[in-house]
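Bench notes, afternoon.
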Amino acid sequence: MAVGSSWKRCPVTTTTQQFLLKEYFASAPPDLFILFGNAHDSARYTLREHAMNVRTLADMLDIYLTPKTKLIWTSKPAEYVQEKPMWFKGLIYEGGTMDITQWLAAANRIHFRQLKKHFVENGRPLMFLDLYGISELVLSDWHHGATHMQPVWYRHIISQILQILCLV
């Protein structure tokens, strides 16, 4: 930056979620909002942090989306631990009290509990799709690495969502 320049750093600390919900969708709120759970969060957050993140995003959805916006929020999918690199297989979470399967199950329980408070109990249209249960059943056949599935699995999930929406 040149000396004497009038350029200043923007003081706003808006998150991507705040920008999308408060500004981008402000003039034309969506009829449908789909949020996919992220299994990679297990390496980034404790369960307490995860609960805070879900609660914060749910608060924003309550504030910035119209009550008629349908929400589809998915759980975190299962991971195929056998395919993880050796250094990753042995990782433990929550201070050494959980493996990845236990962490994902606990995170999904927290996830639904937070959503129930915000959406189920206040009447907002919500579908909570259990990707953990659906992915766990077919991991050995449809996995693509440790944390991803083959494209056909994702097409199947989108097909399920569309079929449900057509009934509503």
